[in-house]
Amino acid sequence: MKLKEKITVEEVNGKAFKIRMIEASEHGNAALTHYLHNHENGVSAFYKKEALTHIKRALEYKYPEDTITSKAAEEALQYMIFDFQKEIPFPAPAKPKFKFIDLFAGIGGFRLAMQNLGGKCVYTSEWDEQAKKTYQANFGEVPFGDITKEETKKFIPDNFDVLCAGFPCQAFSIAGRRGGFEDTRGTLFFDVAEIIKRKRPKAIFLENVKGLRNHDKGKTLKTILNVLREDLGYFVPEPKVLNARDFGVPQNRERIFIVGFRSDLGIEEFEYPKPPKQRVSFEDVKEKNTVSVKYYLSDTYLNTLVKHKERHASKGNGFGYEIIPDDGTANAVVCGGMGRERNLVYDDRLEDFTPITHIKGEVNRKGIRKMTPREWARLQGFPDNYIIPVADASAYKQFGNSVAVPVIQATAEKIVNRILEYVNRK
What we know:
Layout: E1 7-12, E2 15-20, H1 28-37, H2 48-62, H3 70-83, E3 98-103, H4 109-116, E4 119-124, H5 129-139, H6 150-153, E5 162-165, H7 188-199, E6 203-209, H8 219-231, E7 234-235, E8 240-243, E9 251-252, E10 254-262, H9 299-314, E11 323-324, E12 330-331, H10 337-341, E13 344-346, E14 368-370, H11 373-379, H12 392-401, H13 405-425
Parallel strand pairs: 3-4, 3-5, 5-6, 9-12, 11-13
Antiparallel strand pairs: 1-2, 6-10, 7-10, 8-10, 13-14
């Protein structure tokens, strides 16, 4: 097997050397980083065996002539703990108030919000490799992979408080007879439901596209709610569509939120957060300095967009590019070219119009450019010290797929308060 390598410098028994983190095991790096994040609590037991196996494999690769014992692997693992998290932009809180897991984690929008509220993430999964790079750069943790696989689910610990999942809305096939647990098989929601059934967290927090509400004439959402309420025994108030625009970011982004509480908590009411009065506009997130010429459209590309919009306008359609004024609100950032084309901006600060990428024609002189990945990050509520370690194409995709942090945090705060009320009553 061809080995993929990641280099980390560690020091064991006073001797500096490089450990090559061999990805011969699909879960090796994930188990190791999860162990390091949880070495001070009982959750580490779920990751230690795989973490030790991973380190032993790495040492055997580095020192093929030596006999690597389990004790040597244990010593290496313990030494890693000393310097762990020193360079992580978003470490876990020192004294967490609750524990949560982060499914379909993307680049950690849920995690940022939950950590801001004092939460400790004890398990995360994400299958996109580029998103994993971004997640690791910011949280120092490699997510586990495909959550539909049993070998991935087996690492999920017990006794966490909140399950978070921005699960993708795969098409449901619903016959309309049962509308229960079995009807969700073959969908990603089934895997979320299966984890809830096994682990019984105190609360669940799900996010999805607004269209879930009307998917298959409402049958899909009805099935999801029936599973959570009837099959799994959770109190689930009516889902709520919230707009990120109303929670402090200048982006018109509507998403549906589903919240639930385990029945034995005795919670029988829940109020979603009310939007604050403060509104912001694009100029609040716009780059303060001149951006690279690579973000400016070429004349040829701009003319194509104009003609495309004119064709649709002649048919009575509203499709096509859009330029967001500085005092305006951006459209939802989404994957694909349309997400960028519907969020163009004016920026006349560019002075050097010499192209640095291969374009057709010349750079337009009207000051029309795409938003930068950092502007998209701000539109989603990510702070400026959030690291973007991937190429622009991946960054646009990742932020387009992400949750908007402020609205997640506002809703999560309501959930956490109810949980803590229950804990304090006991």
